[in-house]
Amino acid sequence: MSFMEKTEQDFLTNYELRDKCIVLCRIMLSTTLVFACPINICPSIQALFNILQHTQSNNGQSRTTLYDNTVWRVTVTTLCFLLSLVVALKSPHVADLISIICAFFTSPLMFTFPAMMYRGILKRRDQVVPTALHTLTISLWVAEILRLLS
How far, in Å, CA of 70 to CA of 14, rounded? Predict the structure, then answer.
């Protein structure tokens, strides 16, 4: 709210470089990212490996999972971190990129999939919550599309 339309994509650049509160904010934001990235990427990598493992034929053999193979897990995880870093560094409007990703991928994950599970469990009873969740997802998509077109 401080800068209104003059707010930069990296909002911290709007403030003085040596401002003690902003330095503290940068430290706290960096600390959050250092812990949030592995917490989010490790289950994602495990899910990817589980999908890949499921698509391979098992031929009745009991094999160790791909995720248990340290070389593959560390290599793929490192590549994902590097890809994320390159995209973030090469995107001049990283806030717009994050907004698009959140609207189109995170909202279905957070709202639509639980609504589908809710419907599956209740077998067509009490459709208010699933309908509201689907409506919220569609509303977020429409808002993001309108923002991109403006």
Answer: 43
CA 9 to the chain's CA centroid: 18
Regarding whether 103 and 73 lie in a shared domain, the answer is no
**pLDDT band at residue 63 using 50, 70 and 90 as cut-offs:** low
Are 32 and 98 in the same domain? Answer: no
How far apart are alpha carbons 38 and 82 in whole angstroms? 13
Round to whole Å and give the CA distance between 43 and 78: 14
Q: What is the pLDDT of residues 6-20, one digit of tens each?
A: 777 677 777 888 889
d(CA 3, CA 89): 24
Extract long-range pairs of 93-101: CB within 8 Å, 24+ residues apart: 93/9, 94/9, 94/10, 95/9, 95/10, 95/11, 96/9, 99/144, 99/147, 100/144, 100/148
Tell me which residue of 58, 52, 87 sits closest to 73, measured CA to CA: 52
Give strand ranges (E) for 45-144. none
Q: Count how many residues are written for the chain.
A: 150
Q: Tell the residue number behind the tokens 């589908």, with chain if given.
A: 116
Question: If you compute the radius of gyration of the chain from its CA atoms, what whole number of angstroms results?
Answer: 21
Q: Where a domain ends, among 90, 110, 125? A: 90
